[in-house]
Amino acid sequence: MAAAPRLIDTDLHNDLAGPRELLPFLPKEWHQQWLEQGIGVGGKSWSAVGYIRKDVKPEKGGYPGSDPEFVLKDHMDRYGFDYAILTGNASMIGISLNYDPDYANAVASAHNDWQNEVWLKASPRYKGSILINHADPDAAVREIERLAGHPDIVQVMMCSASRTLFGQRFYHPIYEAAERHGLPVAIHPGNEGLGPTYPPTPSGYPTRYMEWQNIIPINYMSQVNSLVCEGVFEKFPKLKFVAIEGGISWLPHLMWRMDKNYKALRDTVPWLKKLPSEYIKEHVLLTTQPIEEPTQPQHLVDIINMCGAEDMVMFSSDYPHWDFDNPKMALASFPRELREKIAAKTAMDVYGLKEVVEGAGIGGVAG
Amino acid sequence: MAAAPRLIDTDLHNDLAGPRELLPFLPKEWHQQWLEQGIGVGGKSWSAVGYIRKDVKPEKGGYPGSDPEFVLKDHMDRYGFDYAILTGNASMIGISLNYDPDYANAVASAHNDWQNEVWLKASPRYKGSILINHADPDAAVREIERLAGHPDIVQVMMCSASRTLFGQRFYHPIYEAAERHGLPVAIHPGNEGLGPTYPPTPSGYPTRYMEWQNIIPINYMSQVNSLVCEGVFEKFPKLKFVAIEGGISWLPHLMWRMDKNYKALRDTVPWLKKLPSEYIKEHVLLTTQPIEEPTQPQHLVDIINMCGAEDMVMFSSDYPHWDFDNPKMALASFPRELREKIAAKTAMDVYGLKEVVEGAGIGGVAG
């Protein structure tokens, strides 16, 4: 009898062994640009020194996270993940910030074909994302249509940084397509303040990496606020929005402030039919990594409980990045019922992962 | 025997009865510009319709908040405030965002002289702020030197929106002067996204007032993050920083994220000697209005307790703005010891208000 998954990683960065690995999937006219400029998104000042874990280099060489077989052994089996949602190279996720939409569309499509060929065929435990260029919604919709039928594709993914807040009408065709195909739309950080976006804070540019990294979640709050206020979840009532790697414990503040203002100002947003916090609870998912670590771990549980976020949070590891979370440590402090939801149950529902596939590891953490 | 204050309002917007009231305090060469353009800071798209309470118009006419005697009766006596910290016209606070530093400096000085003449002389229960133009730190320092000796001046004040994050070295002369005179530096919101600042979110411009108002606190998080990461509180160990009207319950998230990153990345901020959250607890004050209102009021108390913020929070009313908080309602849910700190004790320490002055009302809420 098939068992239900017990541990799912919702943020595994599968990567290219090197830039040339993308070439078979990229039209020839873009090869030189790709090899010389990569994603070509300006601004790298806040990159951490030592961004990638040094202890997870594939045995046969290449970049950490670039060998599907090694990742199965080094990550999936080691920690007992039944499934992992692939999120690709963290820089490539930011392709939406390239100034040229044609190049961005081509790189996104190449990424997706490479993922499907090299990773989704390597193991049924890997599930894929459709990387889109959110700056060209028509092209993004075509990419969703092209790949949504793939049996191992489970979400649409785009970078969290943008020139226009995600609630605005410009993006609605993307949500329409994602909702129609039953795919959640996920955002991933790391490009805040780069390319043609605005500074990472309303008062300008942080100086060092730590300061920039600390403050990334304010962009997540801004995007969630925009999605709710613009009525996206009334217009697309089945849409799920996955906020990867953007923090959790800002939820009470945002929910309470939005709900209070809604009570006074709801005549200015007449398309909203219920409290903003209700839309957030029903439509927004958050991933755990980097897990917040109060001195008393119970405080994070309290935060989740006080805003009714028990069904909003999914485990993620961020393998192979420096701030990787080990599920055995990150999940240890949650009470059993909540831990099981975070470890796998919520992700099962969001991504439609009903059963453990043959050969999958045993979810050793949530059991 | 003199009694200790029992209720202090840390955000009372005293206002001009009209623009002409400033003229006696403003050099003649700026009169026409002031009468024609006011503060002259571009961008007003997110202003609320009905921003000022309609029920608090002075009996003798003029703008709400413009009559010191009426405010004593209508606000101070009605709710039993022993003292109020004056914060002036909310738009004028944004004078730092005028493109012309000479005009901004002149308007700030005129504001301060008007406050001292019209308001501080009207009652010893009013305590004043030195409004500065933070975009010209040398001039701001001169203004602090000019007025810090006034016995009823208790803080330096500037708008929270800025072109450069407040931790950066550009602003350090302001902090040096404020610390030397024992004056806290306060910031006040309302100008996020206006004039020469950046958009109010890292991903651009909100559409409507509610969305903009919801998200203002992200700028506060950014400024506090910058102040701590840049080592301002190591360099100025007696400096207090008052974050007016920027929310409270984002503290756990910001503290936990900063502390976690500090543990991994402290070699990049070697000037920090302790956890970021410790600097926040020792140096940052927050005001209550608009008080966050979870369905279960105990949750806000829990948030304050879980991040050790019991001595960080001070009551404020925001009189006469639309989102005014009545202290009888806003303070009702706090347990006694915490309520007394929020109502008056913390503000007494921060602003050096030791005794109730003769004729002051009786703090009816905290008793």
Automatic annotation (TrEMBL), chains A, B:
Is Thylakoid one of the keywords UniProt gives this record? no
Single annotated GO MF: hydrolase activity
GO terms, biological process = secondary metabolic process
Identify one Gene Ontology CC term for this UniProt entry.
cytoplasm
Q: Which UniProt keywords apply?
A: Hydrolase, Lyase
Query: Where does the Amidohydrolase-related domain lie?
Result: 16-353
PANTHER family noted in UniProt = 2-AMINO-3-CARBOXYLMUCONATE-6-SEMIALDEHYDE DECARBOXYLASE, ISO-OROTATE DECARBOXYLASE (EUROFUNG)
Q: What is this protein called?
A: Amidohydrolase family protein
